[in-house]
Amino acid sequence: MRRLIAATCFAMLGFVSLWCWAAIAERIPDQFRNSVRHGCYEIGKCPMSFFEGFLFFLLVFGPAVIFGVSAAIFSKTRRTWQSWLQLLGGLVGLHWVLMLIDRLA
Question: Which residues form the signal peptide (predicted)?
């Protein structure tokens, strides 16, 4: 039961991390002019290939799945709250660095 609760909480934190990153990514073009994306990127208005749809699905649900699986694996033994915060900080940091690399590429 403890592993399920940890996995569920971390999966929700994966969605929170994505939501916070979206708020930050909105301001990136103001700081880095070369990161402005051109083309049609509206979900409902633009045609999307299967590959682009799959990547969008991974973008939305990938962090939650990875956060949840990591918490389930991490909770096999009893840990201190400091180690849980380190895991969360590492996952959020890795997520944001990967998203920044994707955004600036």
Answer: 1-22
Q: How many CB atoms lie within 10 A of CB 95?
A: 19
- Reported for 84-87, long-range contacts at CB under 8 A and 24+ positions apart, including other chains, are none
Cα gap 32→100, rounded to integer Å: 11
d(CA 47, CA 5): 39
Q: Which residues contact 48 (CB under 8 A, 6 or more apart)?
A: 56
pLDDT tens column, 9-57: 999 999 999 999 988 888 777 776 666 666 666 677 778 888 888 988 9
Residue type, 103: R
Would you state the pLDDT for residue 38? 64
Number of structural domains found in the chain: 1
Question: Which residues span the domain enclosing 78?
Answer: 2-104
What pLDDT is recorded for position 89?
96
Name residue 59's amino acid: L
